[in-house]
Amino acid sequence: SSLLEVRNLHKSYGSGSQAVDVLKGIDLTIEAGDTVALVGPSGAGKSTLLHMLGTIDRPTKGEVLFDGQNIFTLAEQSLASFRNRSIGFVFQFHHLLPEFTAMENVMMPLLIGGTRRSVAEVPARRLLDDVGLSHRITHRPGELSGGEQQRVAIARALVREPRLLLADEPTGNLDMKTSDEIHLLLDTIQRSTGISLVIVTHNEKLAAGMGRTIRIVDGRIV
Ligand code: ADP
Ligand code: ADP
């Protein structure tokens, strides 16, 4: 089966006469190893859809099958453990912990999961090398450029070897040159690992070079 199958997904915020329908019936299939760019105007529902794919928000109606499993039937705790195992997130703002080094930030998801520090250091070091930051492992986020901070966030998102990487405007806060570099890095990682990548972006030209483009307008795929 496909990695992800989204069926008739709806999301509304509020209720009764105050209800706002943000997603109005999304159908989407993503195979393992696919790259999908979500594009469209601001407010169209791209982030909302990404949050549903990432199980950090629940739909009002419809279902998301991950490896054939209807994930929103899981109780909250099982859903959280599924999410931690299977999905990596990169956001516009990196959410790195300022008191910790690049290395510690990348190790953090493993340490929280109970992995010993000496064990967690191995993949963290390798991933920091993969994102081009082997010379920055003892730096804290405040000592890194915006692009470097986002590279740390990407390494952290990958440290638990997720099947799916979700990126919500990962370059929205970066200058054009740095933005191109981060897109290229995500593309390289996707190709070398075979991870599935769903990226919300305004850079449609770069997105088109990475894979399939899906346009969302007013809560629907067009
Ligand atoms: P996009 O990512 O395409 O810019 P979003 O998914 O962020 O769009 O938002 C789509 C719409 O949903 C917007 O009108 C936004 O104001 C609304 N929205 C998003 N999150 C919430 C929320 N938690 N409560 C109410 N409305 C929300
Ligand atoms: P925006 O997309 O509007 O910039 P954020 O990226 O800050 O907003 O966060 C979007 C949503 O993702 C919020 O609901 C936030 O609580 C959640 N979130 C942020 N960081 C993480 C994380 N590391 N893991 C899970 N959920 C997160």
From TrEMBL:
PROSITE patterns linked: ABC_TRANSPORTER_1, ABC_TRANSPORTER_2
Gene Ontology biological-process annotations: lipoprotein localization to outer membrane; protein localization to outer membrane
Single GO MF annotation: transmembrane transporter activity
Transmembrane segments: none
InterPro entries (alphabetical): AAA+_ATPase, ABC_transporter-like_ATP-bd, ABC_transporter-like_CS, ABC_transpr_LolD-like, MacB-like_ATP-bd, P-loop_NTPase
Keyword tags: ATP-binding, Cell membrane, Lipoprotein, Membrane, Nucleotide-binding, Translocase, Transport
Record-annotated ABC transporter domain positions: 4-222
Protein's name in the database: Lipoprotein-releasing system ATP-binding protein LolD
Organism this protein belongs to: Geomonas silvestris
